[in-house]
Amino acid sequence: MSPYPSSQKEKALIKLEEQSQSPTIIIASNQQRNQDFAECSASWATHKATTHSSNSQAYTLCGEYIDLVDLGIGIILHAILAYYNDFAN
Q: What are the Cα distances from residue 26, in Å, to 19, 50, 86?
């Protein structure tokens, strides 16, 4: 038996099943990104609070900052909101 769908009906059923799982995957992915951002930003905040330097590289050439950047562009909104919340209060 081939792993590939043989009929249009099978293809349509597979596509429908994939679409029905899509929101669940997106929500799980977003929750994981929220958790990862919270952990990495807290770690970097601790690093910033315990590092006393006038050299900005002391804050950006560290594992904590690299971990945060490695999360990718999906965290931009999280970073903007965190920045806003930090200075709005």
A: 11, 36, 28
pTM, 2 dp: 0.65
Residues with Cβ within 8 Å of residue 78, at least 6 apart in sequence: 33, 34, 37, 41
Helix (H) or strand (E) run with residue 25 in it: helix 8-50
How far does Cα 63 stand from its chain's mean position? Answer: 17
Q: For the chain, how far is it from start to end, CA to CA, in angstroms?
A: 63
Query: How many whole angstroms separate alpha carbon 23 and alpha carbon 36?
Result: 20
Give pLDDT tens digits for 21-70: 666 666 777 888 889 999 999 999 999 999 999 999 999 999 999 999 99
Q: Is-contact 41 82, C-beta < 8 A? A: yes
Residue linked to tokens 């806003």: 84
- Nearest partner of 30 among 88, 80, 74, judged by Cα: 74
